[in-house]
Specification:
Elements: E1 7-8, E2 14-15, H1 40-54, H2 63-74, E3 87-89, E4 97-99, H3 145-155
Antiparallel strand pairs: 1-2, 3-4
The protein binds iron/sulfur cluster.
């Protein structure tokens, strides 16, 4: 039979020694968001929506949206904002970047920079960590340090000249 022992303090309060090691909630640490696990079906649906939004005539998101996406993916060296931790160098195409979080593969249609119709141009395109500019964007949580800095830079009027990663190709 379990015996319930309690320590009685002079002030009338009681303490359960088993609870002495009270759970101390760790302080939230600053870290970058990780992509949500997406099923194959969801990836196909998401890609289908992006393709549909592009249409037959290469529809593009508006300039401001594309600039937000560029900031989200590539950062802004002039303002000390580093690129997204999920941005990867393409192994097949030198000088090109792809998203390492969406699982779409190292293919030309997924380029994040350079010539041609790149991923950031699709009117309806998602980001695996819901960064600003993408259709599934969500506000930064307190620990999402870089996302917060992206938001602040956008709020402060992101300098349209600051990031010219793709200017020539548009
Ligand atoms: S699409 Fe999102 S996760 Fe991928 S590189 Fe850009 S900001 Fe990062």
């Amino acid at each position: 039979m379990a015996v319930n022992i309690k320590i009685h303090h002079g002030d009338g309060s009681e303490e359960d020694p088993k609870k002495e090691n009270k759970e101390v909630k760790p302080e939230p640490i600053q870290h970058e968001p990780t992509p949500e696990a997406k099923s194959f079906i969801k990836k196909v649906v998401s890609y289908g929506r992006a393709l549909k939004s592009r249409g037959l005539y290469d529809n593009m998101a508006d300039e401001e949206t594309i600039q937000k996406r560029e900031l989200s993916c590539h950062g802004d060296a002039k303002q000390g904002l580093e690129p997204c931790h999920l941005r990867k160098n393409s192994k097949k195409f030198a000088g090109r970047y792809i998203c390492g979080g969406c699982g779409c593969g190292d293919k030309s249609r997924n380029f994040l920079n350079g010539d041609g119709y790149i991923k950031l141009y699709y009117p309806d395109v998602t980001c695996p960590i819901q960064m600003p500019g993408f259709i599934n964007e969500t506000p930064a949580k307190p620990h999402e340090n870089r996302k917060k800095r992206v938001e602040i830079q956008i709020e402060q009027g992101y300098n349209k000249q600051a990031n010219d990663n793709n200017k020539e190709s548009k």
